[in-house]
Amino acid sequence: MSQSRFPEPETLPSRPDFPDPLVMLDGTKVMTKEQWETKRRPELLALFQHYMYGRMPPAPAEVRWTVLHQDDKAFGGKATLKEVAITVGPGAAPPIHVLLVVPRNARKGPAPVFVGLNFCGNHALVDDPKVRVPASWVYPNQPGVTNNRAGDAGRGKQADVWNLEQTLARGYAVATVYNGDIDPDRIDKREGLRPFLASLKGDAPAGAETATVAAWAWGIHRVVDFLVKQEKEIDAKRIICVGHSRLGKAAIVAAAFDERIALAIPHQAGCGGTAPDRCKSAKAETVKRINTSFPHWFCGNFKKFNDDTSRLPFDQHGLAALVAPRPLLFTNAVEDPWANPEGQFEVLKAAEPVYKLLGAGGLDAATMPDVGKLIDSRLGYFIRGGKHAMTREDWKVFLDYADKQLGKP
Ligand code: GCU
Hints:
By secondary structure, the protein is an alpha/beta fold. It has twelve helices and eleven strands. α6 (212-230) packs across α7. The longest helix has 21 residues, at 33-53.
């Protein structure tokens, strides 16, 4: 069924529980891997675009890259650091600036790589005066930001969020981009690559226009293009997509829509990403709340479910299932009930039938694990003590999980 023929939200049946991910919209039961791959997976991708994220634009006709700066002796000689401008075309779209760090040792072959968006600019992740400070709008609460412009004072100030040294020492590369290079996170203005995305051909019925989370995910796909096509030092089979919170929402959407991503780690992603739309927790963010505070993250149709999420023809376990059979880890914190850690565990459990159908294993836990204990099965789960943040301890868990699922570098 083409997206434009999907029913109006108010005519969809009310289903208070998670819809069965292995039943098509018309009621047909999905019994085989082939049916999943050729029928249900494409249907779910279309449903998520139509009712929630808006259209995922096609890949651009042109992608080019230019190295802006390279240091072969970064991190005391332990890594190569590059900043690369990715330009998409045709036409004059603003570039996406990728910071790529690759370990020189601690690995045998090409390096597996973490790809993810950052909140504040590449300059905040490393102490290197040559790394670019974003020129576009940035969040007011980030270090070194005045009047929504980043400055030199922010250099290196988020080194403890990305913990690049630890990741490099474990043999992994990291490729990251400031999310505002793709779409600055403003409610009322669409800048960055948004005008270019709108120019790409494709079907986007009214109410299902590309929204910000999908735009960010599209930008991640362009970083994957660059890594796969250009970077010989990178293992194209071990691309791990990571992101924190709203950028974790973008990480799981990126992985759901692009099978070149081998593993996804949406960290504390919560509502609109990894937490149930049918929210049962009084402390967690709801669909109505997120659509009110951040209307630009999701498409117009999603707002029609504000007062009745039971009519959604999917829940977020469907998005998790789109990552199958690839490994998927949800990570949380005890003092972050807004992201609904319990609900996220239920989402993973509900995605399991699809993983099982594909012979990919599942979630090796019947109930939430103890705090600090990583469940490292194909569907993985972790909750630590503490608050909403991306910490060194979180990165250690990401690395342990990647080692287990993709093999040590
Ligand atoms: C807000 C928002 C969340 C989001 C978070 C973040 O709290 O409500 O949905 O995940 O910001 O990005 O830090």
